[in-house]
Amino acid sequence: MAIVERLHSFSPGAGRVAPRATASGSAETITLNGRWRFRLVPTLADVTERFMDPEFDDGAWDSIDVPSAWQMAGLRDEDGRLLERGQARFGTPAYTNVIYPFAIDPPFVPDENPTGEYRLAFDVEPQGGGRWLVRFEGVDSMFTVWLNGVELGWSTGSRLPSEFDASAHLRAGRNVLAVRVHQWSAASYLEDQDMWWISGIFRSVSLVHRPDGGIDDHFVHVAFDHHDRSGTVRVETSAAAVVRIPELGVEAASGEAVRIAGVEPWTAETPRLYRAEITNEAETIQIQIGFRTVTVEDGRLLVNGRPIRLRGVNRHEWHPDTGRTLDIATMRRDIELMKRHNINAVRTSHYPPDTRFLDLCDELGLWVIDECDLETHGFGRVNWKRNPSDDPRWREAFLDRMRRMVERDKNHPSIILWSLGNEAGFGQNLSATAAWAHARDPDRLVHYEGDHNASAVDVHSQMYTSPDELRRYGAGIEDVTTDATHDRHRRKLPLILCEYAHAMGNGPGGLREYEELFDRYPRLAGGFVWEWIDHGIRQLRDTEPHRSTEFFAYGGDFGEQLHDGVFIIDGLVFPDRTPSPGLIEYAAVITPVRVTIGEDGIRVENRHDFIDTAGYTFEWSIEAAGCAVSSGVLDVPPVPARSEADLPLPAEVDGAATPDAWITVRVHTATASPAVPAGHQVGAAQRRLTPAAAPVRATRRPVEQHGTGWRLGSALFDRAGGLRSMGGISARPVEIDLWRAPTDNDLNRARGQASCWREAGFDRLRHRVESVEMLDDELLVTTVTAPAGGDLGFRSRAGWAWSDKGLILDFRAEPFGQFRTALNADAARLARATPSTIPRLGVRLWLDLPSDSEIRWLGLGPGEAYPDTTSGAVHGLHTSRVAAMQTPYVRPQENGRRADVTWIEITDGARALHVQADRPLGATVRPWSAEQLTAATHTPGLLEEGGLWLHLDLGQYGIGSAACGPDAFEPYRLGPRAFDLRLRFRM
Ligand code: IPT
């Protein structure tokens, strides 16, 4: 078949051996990973005619690491050093979410089809008879393989393995493997996942020996009977063999079902694996067996007879330097981070991961939805016309993908659901794959979100459902499906949110609201936050002569004509895997051991599904105004899974008389497990015991004239009543502050608020001092603040006084004008416009303090917190530095706010400014202005301006999930209102 025909073929490949389980054992496997010769050509017309010939001279070619994606490898020089931005050796990554970067004309793809030609010369001494296979774990998107000049076959299915029989052509001594990989092929229509388009041999390649009579394939069928706690195992093999589980004294023939009394079951909480081997004369393979049974009963998702709650994430494979090529340390790191943040489930969105990741899920304990490498989302743009999912010509390709996933991964106890893919509409090919999976593996459940009627699946799945709608599903009062039979079936199914809470930029907010529903309704089996990691690409940008700054690139940064910008940056961890505040929040909301401190006692809820709380310690402490008062350890009898216990409060609670006293209970792991160390905090709870101290009585001193302005103690004001310095620290006048640099949620065109805020003009406030009055002991300044081009705003009155307790500011403000979302509008538009929300309500001032100042505050911390993201923060005395308080969102946006702050202190060692508020405020300190934060598109765009901005707010608009989901929920929306505020500055 000519290349062109093959590229435009509905067929998934040819010449491949039947898919089979991943296995390791006595048979030899030789890695072919390493440095290969490589040449990239831009179009099919440029391919190298005889490059597969063993004698072909590739001396002038480039070289590349296998595995790697060529676009990612090409961002570095031959020695692995990052090239400057704009330079690349092998094409560049391109990002689109839904839209295909080629015309929708299936099965055709453009002539402009970057093609990588790879050559590897290697020496082997094949021994022992049998067959030799060349195994590719993943090649994107279509490739043909030649060994010693002879074609072995071709394949598609980028995130799936392909094996070719090389036996007839493998020689003792030198061999040459040649592979031609095309970026685009008919199969690209099936791989429209929301991720970077990158290509090449991006997973390992090996030469695998298959001895005659060897165990080519095996299928471990397991069950756990929760009534008598026995396990059953039956191992099907492709050749007769003996199965041994030494620890259980089991020795059985392949195919024989063995029931074993008293086994320990596998769960994500107790990932108990039994070592076993399957052996015959030809070979021995080592396996790990986990006993567990997955069922749906009474609309609940059960494992081993008990309901489970999925506290999950969607995980793409990503590394900022290597793309979708991950090393084992990175995979392990992902799981450690997940488990240390209370996550217990992964959906492998949207393709089967490197198999080693699944081994780690088995070993460390995570529930897995293994998802097929299938997405045809781009057809949505043409009303799903010609969608492959319902076109019989693609049927074999669909089945091929599902088969290759299930056959490869069928022995992982961690996998409880097979997912048919993502966002591929619905149609006969998906029904066929579901039917095939049910027949091949009756012991697991089938998932696919796009099957809205749940006609082919065993769990109902949705994405980005609002809490209101979710509540209806929980209560079983959801709308009927179009078909009565499907409706009856669907009503019996548990519901999961395979995606919710879009973690783009600052956020997600509103996680608690979902958690409450998951808690309340047994039918709701939990959900998976979208998504685990920001797919940023590490780049260097020249910021100054001889200085380059690293940053993370996103869509459009490689000059793509078509791209979806920053939508690729929507993870709970930053590209370098630093946890973002969203992950801290999620960990707190989903804590498996929830403590609630009431007036009369402490409630411990064990939200695990299987284990009791014996493995946790519960420490309490009482602090008053941030200072330790007393502490101890709670005596908590082991609380069984899914139950709760009530305990008395520590006796010391009664004695707490000092103002602003709080009790905190922290839950830690008592012992280490493979992914989580001992002493790791899994949750915390707090309760205020005594009110904050009454405001101090201050004796005011007279205001003095000073030059053309005024002096109030150590504070100087200009003639317009504007603050100029305090205690030797230069300052700028206090201003009303309504703006925040829009978050990615704010910027969503359909549900976000930023466009209204901009239309209203909150980003361009102008201030006009109306009057300055000198009273005996107060300097009174009234100001009108309104946006350029607008006639609404705030009138404020700042009363400044000097006292024995420092500089006092009494600030009052009142809104005026029509706060409507449509400003400058005609009457009709105005009538339709809803009352405006505002991003922030507060004040800001600039201080001449250095950017390495130390910050202390009493309030929530240590991390940032917004109205609907406060779960991960605790009240107390916190210390940090300016730089550490900036959250490095890949696209700069509002960040770094500390909530419920009653005082904050900024010090450079020599000078200190202490600001005390009469009520808890949001406090943000930045070395750059909100204007700069708003304008920056990447982190190197944020430049220290000299001095610090201090923002204090009485409220901010919630964070929500509007980038792909609901906006901030009602209680977290902020509108304009009159406010007053008293601040006391001490220097
Ligand atoms: C949903 C996709 O499944 C996921 O891959 C990702 O693109 C996410 O959106 C947004 O980041 S689909 C969307 C129509 C809700």
Features of this protein?
Immunoglobulin-like, 14 helices, Jelly Rolls, globular, eight-stranded parallel beta sheet, single chain, TIM Barrel, 5 domains, 987 residues, 13-stranded antiparallel beta sheet, mainly beta, binds 1-methylethyl 1-thio-beta-D-galactopyranoside
Task: Report what the structure shows.
- The protein has 14 helices and 61 strands.
- The protein is mostly beta strands and 987 residues long.
- The protein has five domains: 3-210, Jelly Rolls (Sandwich); 218-294, Sandwich (Immunoglobulin-like); 310-534, TIM Barrel (Alpha-Beta Barrel), CATH 3.20.20; 591-688, Sandwich (Immunoglobulin-like), CATH 2.60.40.10; 700-986, Distorted Sandwich (Beta-galactosidase, Chain A, domain 5).
- The radius of gyration is 31 Å and the shape is globular.
- It starts with a helix and ends with a strand.
- The mean pLDDT is 96.
- It binds 1-methylethyl 1-thio-beta-D-galactopyranoside (IPT).
Low-pLDDT runs: none
Q: What is CATH's topology name of the largest domain?
A: Beta-galactosidase, Chain A, domain 5
Helix content: 10-25%
User: In the CATH hierarchy, what is the architecture of the largest domain at level 2?
Assistant: Distorted Sandwich
Query: Overall 3D geometry?
Result: globular
Oligomer: single chain
Rg to the nearest angstrom?
A: 31 Å
**Please, what is the average pLDDT?**
96
Separation, N- and C-terminal Cα atoms: 82 Å
- Helix/sheet category: mainly beta
Number of helices: 14
